[in-house]
Amino acid sequence: MNNRDRWKMFKMLVAMFVVVLLTLAVYQRGNLNITAPFELSRQARMDASERVEPGDALEEKTGPNVGEKGFWKVSKRQPQPKAVATIQKTRISQDISHRTWDVTSSNCSANLNLSSHEWFRGLEKSFQQFMLYRHCRYFPMTLNHPEKCMGEVYLLIVIKSVATQHDRREVIRKTWGKEQVLDGKKIKTLFLLGKPSDETEKANHQKLVEYEDYIFGDILQWDFLDTFYNLTLKETHFLKWFHTFCPSVRYVFKGDDDVFVSVKNIFEFLESSNDKNLFVGDVIFNALPIRNKDNKYYIPRALYNKDVYPPYAGGGGFLMDGRLARRLHWVADTLELYPIDDVFLGMCLEVLQVSPLKHNAFKTFGLVRDKNSKLNREPCFYKSMIVVHKLLPSDLLHMWNLVNGELVCSQKVEFLKRNENIR
Hints:
Strand content: 15-25%
CATH architecture of the largest domain: Alpha-Beta Complex
Radius of gyration: 33 Å
Number of domains: 3
Shape: elongated
Number of strands: 12
Number of helices: 15
CATH class of the largest domain: Alpha Beta
Order of helices and strands: HHHHHHEEHEEHEHEEHEEHHEEHEHH
Distance between the termini: 125 Å
């Protein structure tokens, strides 16, 4: 190989070396430029995973144009209102799951000191029993469903019932108490029970209640006897339960298990209401305590010496704001228990200086003064009501089917009121 050939070989090697250097430089620069976007993308995904709802994340991954859709989603999410709400909902749900009913024992002995008082000895046996255990405020839970209040619940339907009235609960679940989402708002239903009071059948009734709850999962039960004078205990226990487990429930409807209810009419009413002190029902003003011993609602003067009750709503059915229900819990703890639950709630409202609202669509003491009136079986009248008390299960189911069928009403309720002397 002569000198000329050696020179050509040298120039070729130098050129190849330069090309290799340039290639390495370009490759290294490309790596630097690529790494930053990938790091930013990874950080964006990490941030998004902390903020985006599961549905949105799934939508991003499965979209036909993943990169483009993800980009536009990021740009749209700058204010992040839904993301913040999702975090709050998650925290509320986690908070509820860690809350418990804090009463674990029902050891409560009679207040025998009362027996030395003359006024106590003058009471009827039933009131003596009530007074002896009046200080027993709270009892353990035997059936609990805190999950009912998880998430955004717009309306919580709460029904007072007893162990033996399973047929009433069954009809309610099929009709107005059916859990659903109406106009995008969630409705949940619960039944409130105490222990069966029939001594001979107590164990059997309790087993049936437990099996019913196993199937439907909608019964709250406490370890006190389900008696008339213990209805106030059912009220205070629910208020405590609601305060403990339901931080985000918007409204509460509470009623008996023998009423007809129109949830659609409740929603229509609530559309025009934003009162944090809302408490509406068939309100009674200037009611007198009944002193007749033969009456179910008899109250001795030793138990209540005033001449007039504060305004209160008939317990057949009323509607209240969730914020007010939480305040009622605290007030209820400061008052002595009273054997009539409707009146007791009126006393609580009086302490809070909240005036219950009377509404003509709540009929908790009957539709008309004449019980034989045809209006008691007139579906067009029921269609315009919120609550009607009271109906047997078969009558409730029949009326529900009529009202929610192809019903055409040719007369107005106002006309019917004028002609039938409705309350």
